[in-house]
Amino acid sequence: MFSALSLFSGAGGMDIGIRQAGFEILACIEIDPYCCQTLHNAIKKEKLKTILLEEDIRQVQPFQLMKDLGLQVGELDLLFGGSPCQSFSQAGKRTSLEDERGVLLFEFIRFAGTIKPKVILMEQVKGLLTASDQSGNSGGVYKQLNHQFEQLGYRSSIKVINSADYGVAQLRERVFIVATRAEKIFDFPLPTHRKSDPQISLFPLENYVTVGQALMGLDSPSCDRENQPLDSHIDITPAGDRKRIHGVPEGSFLAKELHLPAEQRCKLTKKDTTKFRRLSFSEPSLTLRCGEIFFHPIEDRYLTPREYMRIHGYPDDYLLKGPVRGRSGRARHLDQHRQVANSVPPPVARAISKEIASFLNQEKFVEPSEKIELLNA
Questions:
Q1: 120 close to 178: Cβ distance less than 8 angstroms
Q2: What is the pLDDT of residues 179-211, one digit of tens each?
């Protein structure tokens, strides 16, 4: 079994896929208390040997962690994770490295410089590709990151991946970076799904998974806030939001429905395409967001955290911990909807890490003391 170390573990979506691909996660590092409750529950439930470090990653010393885990330099197979994305997100202010969350991206460099894993897997939003560095150069952050990987002897592959291409019921594009100490460049796995295409192909792929398929078999959610169900299938929609979504057809959003009363649409504009948005049973979901909760395709309610998990590709026996908020807006710590929206869909992590496992089995890796001669792209 291959060894792995999880950074910025969140609710554990990436960890699930990594374990499913045959890796043993030695430790995971996460600071959010609600995510840590979720991770601790998973570790206990599955009787895993994973050590959970609930602390600021900047305070974790890689050398001491290696000592605690009994690891030698260059022995770890996989270092992986997804650092906070808000400073690079195209939906945010894009403060890049001016935001301390953006600087956390380079914790991968700090850990890799000491541990020297064979492979590093990182996930980020697409905004990373154009994020400006301290000098204002567009794309400078990624260039700086890649340069530092090269100085450590790593060669990087990068790809924008749509989760729907790997069987997730969600159109979610994220950047994935795989850096290795191997002599060969890593190739990402080929897609397994695609948008429905009537044309005949020599290599047919399965059609995208739809929201209807993902939610199939779920009973009606509980409305008992005093006794929250373990599976998080609970409806916490405020009465006011039920009234506002009423009359919005499947797959549409409130601002588009100009026939509805002005007092129902309030100050929404045509740009508010994700607010008071219903999903469609017959299509994949839009990217699950942290700022708003999407509504059920036909019922006047939010999707439940369990429905979010189904859309994201979580297994039904995986349980979230922490509060379920009844409204959109900022929260000090991640509630259950946000835990899901912030995480990597497990099927995507599984597909990539299976390819990494194959890569580890087949390729020759340069010893940490040796220098890789990089090829000109």
A1: yes
A2: 999 988 999 999 999 997 766 666 688 999 999
> How far, in Å, CA of 266 to CA of 57, rounded?
43
Active site residue 85: yes
pLDDT tens digits, one per residue of 154-186: 999 999 999 999 999 999 999 999 999 998 899
- In degrees to the nearest 10, what's the CA dihedral of 154, 160, 162, 167? -20
* Domain 2-194+343-362 is found in CATH 3.40.50.150: yes
Residues 69 and 114: beta-carbon distance below 8 Å: no
Question: Distance from first CA to last CA of the chain, Å, rounded?
Answer: 33
And the tokens for 36? 């840590």
Type and span of the H or E element at 316? none
Digit-coded pLDDT (tens) for 234-264: 999 999 999 999 999 999 999 999 999 999 9
Strand 193-194 relative to strand 206-207: parallel, antiparallel, unpaired? Answer: parallel
Q: How far is CA 188 from CA 81, 157, 180, 306, in A?
A: 17, 8, 13, 30
Q: Which of 28, 35, 36, 85 is catalytic?
A: 85
